[in-house]
Amino acid sequence: MTISISIENVSKQYRLGAIGNRTLYEDLNRWWAKVRGKPDPLAKIGEVDHGNRADGLIWALRDVSFTVQEGQVLGIIGRNGAGKSTLLKILSKVTAPTSGQIKLKGRIASLLEVGTGFHPELTGRENIYLNGAILGMTRREIAGKFDEIVSFAEVDKFVDTPVKRYSSGMYVRLAFAVAAHLEPEIMVVDEVLAVGDAAFQRKCLGKMSETASQGRTVLFVSHNMAAINRLCSRAVLLERGRLSADGPASEVTAKYLSGAAEEDGMRNWSPEEAPGTDEVRLMRVSISGNDGVSKSVFEVSDEIFIRLDYRVGRPNIRFRCAMVFNTQGVAAFSTIEPYELERREIGLYSSVLKIPAHLLAESEYAINISAFTSAGSKKHYISLRAALHFQIYDSMKTPSARGDYTQNLAGVVRPKLDWKSSETPIDL
Measured between alpha carbons, how far is 293 from 255 in angstroms, rounded to an integer? Predict the structure, then answer.
């Protein structure tokens, strides 16, 4: 197959700190010493220069090499600061590499920061033509797609209104619509699906799927592993600016998630900072699997345990705990302790919730926690939003509700239900 993108030993170095920390004379002295193989003249006494120390410099990328075939959809994943956006900016020629080279075949469109180039005083119509021109579209191309862009952005009634009067959602929808309707050979997309409401995010994913099905080369950066697995046949993992893994999307995302799973999964508060009232304060919340080890990433087939540890500061108090699980801008479900229990003594108590396997679909979830009494005085003791985050993914290596189906399944919950089907006709 034809190679659409070739990245060869690409590195990018940035200088940290404020401009003017060093003089031009000092920088030239350091450069000349390095050229002659001499020690750094500004190094501290006793300090060894290994050639890669920070000293106000950082390697955002280091010797990254890979190729992308024409028509391939490649996912680029990694933690914040891993170098993903830097790589895309180099590919989009927003910045140049410190060393190495890239080769591109065809026109490239970049959705790095939707809305870049919009003028607040211009109308939506004028900004469509302005932003389209910035993205490389001819006036005829823009006119031919104008109605489609406006319809996708859902701003029909406001297209002749200055965009400074748009809501943030309208602004983002219009910006994405302009960029997404360009028809390049290569499309670069950086986390634009993290903006907008849940309905708009689904619409963006649909547009990305359509682009991929048309045989264009797509580079897609996202922290949504479900979207990466659904849209991409292949993925690369960046860690601290270096290429850590390259292969089938499901394998690379599983490696990334297994590394992330070892972190987080618990929050602790000091007695002075613990959320709540003097009667009840939340001291700790943790999430784990069957092994009891706190983590933040789970398979769809995992049982999940969420433990609340709280201090009761007044004897003979009755209350119950509740949790709301939010994802994609909506409440997936809520759960509540069935009874108000009385805590007769001052001290530490705990409540544990078990979420069964095969209940949640692939997504990121945030937990709201509350403790309250609903009988008599009706009082809230604890009310904490987004107390903890966790992620569900489907490696497709264990039996699940999807069976052997590999495409997207809608919904924020995915119970594994029993189906009974006949292979021969039946009489009604």
Answer: 19
